[in-house]
Amino acid sequence: MIVTMQPAATLKEITGVIRVLESFGASPSISRDCGCTLITAATSKVPIDAQQVRSAGGVRDVHEDAHPFKRVSRDYHPEDSVIDARAARFGGGGFTVIAGPCAVESEEQIHAVAAHVAAHGAKGLRGGAFKPRTSPYAFQGMGVPGLRFLRDAARANNLAAVSEVMSIDQVADCVEHLDVLQVGARNMQNFDLLKEVGRTDKPVLLKRGPSSKIEELLLAAEYIVDAGNPRVVLCERGIRTYETATRNTLDIAAVPVVKQLSHLPIIIDPSHAAGKREYVHSLTLAALAVGADGVMVEVHPTPAKALSDGRQSLHYAEFEKLMDDVGRLSDFRATVNV
Ligand code: PEP
Ligand code: MN
Prior knowledge:
- By secondary structure, the chain is α/β, with parallel strands linked by helices.
- The protein has helices spanning 11-22, 50-54, 107-119, 144-156, 171-177, 191-198, 214-226, 254-261, 270-274, 280-290, 316-333; strands at 2-5, 28-31, 38-41, 59-63, 83-85, 88-90, 96-100, 124-126, 160-164, 180-183, 204-207, 232-236, 266-268, 294-298.
- It folds into two domains: 2-63, 2-Layer Sandwich (Alpha-Beta Plaits); 83-337, Aldolase class I (TIM Barrel, Alpha-Beta Barrel).
- The chain contains eleven helices and 14 strands.
- The site of phosphoenolpyruvate has 11 residues, from loops.
């Protein structure tokens, strides 16, 4: 619920409204968005009687929740959130590219990729150290040494280090080494992990689960913000449908839907959506055209030898061409309203 106070409301009246909201178990917070006092009751456990709030002194308007999420809702925060992680900025009209291999495979590999993607305009370096693999026999990642290699390669090239944290016991190491904590698609509804990353001060890249609705993605983000961390970047990475021509089905419409419902930035991962490198270029340009705040793409020095996701990883020359086209389309996007 959002309560808008009259411009001349006194401190006593504001306190009175807070008391009413608290009597329903809510923990109200006060803001001054839009030049007037707004009181938001974001964590009420029982329905708040709007009539009772309306009749309190000094109240101009009471807006009842249209959505089950509150802290991530645009209703509560009309301005776009802008989230900075070193050189990478998400939100605010730009188009930020995170690039790198599916997994950190060696110190040499990650340094080589970092230098290449930075030279062509990427602002974030991806690379899994803890890998969620469908098969227990597949490469599971290098673990903490992989995080160190990623961090050093990112620092050397002024990139934000982005990597997945799969479980609560990995959070401390990830906080120490990373600039962005990625919560993977399979963990989107691991509520204990969401709360734990919500207790850190690192930006969180939250990927949409393959079978999750947009509302469930936003509620997962709500867990992180409610735990105290407002720096969440959403990521659409394709959902599971009956279509098998691509690895997942990229739900490009998720971008305008999320932008209408939420103030959080949203990026697209065309690599895991497509599953094949030949589709990554056009899906990236689609992400730019539809108004996404960026993309995360997989790039590998020798995709044929990659330990994971080689089929969807771009060769260096393909990444270079992609960044050229992103630059040109970005100039055009700046002239239209998406
Ligand atoms: C990844 O980006 O490394 C990854 C495993 O992607 P997703 O969680 O979207 O499958
Ligand atoms: Mn991958």
